[in-house]
Amino acid sequence: MSSVLKRYVTDPARHLEAVFRDIERTRMAGLPILNTALTVEAIGFTPWQGHWLGALITPWFLNLVLVPGAQGEWPHAAEGERIVRRLPAGDCNFYGCFEPVIGEFHASSLCSPMSRFADQAAARAEALYRLDAWLAEPPPAEPAATDATDGERRAFLRRMIPAGER
Fold this sequence. Notes:
By secondary structure, this protein is of the alpha+beta class. 26% of the residues lie in helices and 28% in strands. The protein has one domain: [NiFe]-hydrogenase assembly chaperone, HybE (Yope Regulator, Chain: A, 2-Layer Sandwich). The protein is built from 3 helices and 6 strands; from the N terminus they run αββββββαα.
């Protein structure tokens, strides 16, 4: 893996699409895992903590992808090394990836293989749904019952049961 980190000032979607279309034509050509109803598409990329977070659809996988932006600390992860990133919805397992044209990036598998999708629209809808889910803040937790509430229940029951029957 190259030690040079490529940083993207603008949305990296077109770079990802070009590289993964080339991978589809070369490394993945003819493999039965490909869903021929799908095409490579990088969607929903948005700035996140100084980097670019979005979804990458290919005929063989759907991944959440994090690409180095112009700002922000970038934790190096060797190819295949797991790195946990805290997203708004919680901790997400990413893996270190490297492609010479793109440089280092992190990916988290959302779906593979892609045989469950009938068409690109279905894959796109799933990608955007999953991306939105990871970027959504979790709802506030329900407050736990307090001892005071339990105590009030016990007192109520004590009043209802005659003293001799307790």
